[in-house]
Write a structure and sequence with these properties.
122 residues, mainly alpha
């Protein structure tokens, strides 16, 4: 798996990946649910939507809105097995390991933490 620190600068230059932001509704949801709950949701989404060899609807399984984790997944290219292969060199021909799932969850949560820290007016 490629290191997120080496992938992050390239993602930030991507016109598609860099357009994702947490809006006021996302921030309110995170404030209400708490970051621990958001992290739990991220783990559940990764397990359900990414961990299998061929997830159902791969390439279309992560909505673009509806939950802060979905935005984070698109922003960090952790939204489908194709993106995980392209950006992080994670092969599609095997299930994700527990370590990989943990790393992906950390990438998602890093993005959420950084975006929560940003000023809404910026």
């Amino acid at each position: 798996m490629r290191d997120y620190c080496s992938v992050k600068p390239v993602l930030e230059k991507s016109a598609f990946r860099s357009k994702f932001r947490l809006d006021a509704r996302d921030r309110a949801y995170i404030d209400k649910a708490g970051l621990a709950a958001i992290e739990k949701h991220a783990r559940e989404f990764i397990e359900k939507r990414l961990s299998a060899i061929a997830p159902e609807k791969d390439g279309r399984q992560t909505p673009f809105k509806g939950h802060p984790v979905f935005k984070a997944q698109h922003a960090t290219a952790t939204c489908c097995r194709g993106c995980l292969l392209k950006w992080y060199a994670l092969p599609k021909q095997r299930p994700l390991t527990e370590r990989e799932k943990t790393l992906i969850g950390g990438i998602v949560m890093d993005w959420i933490h950084r975006n929560m820290a940003k000023d809404l007016t910026a």
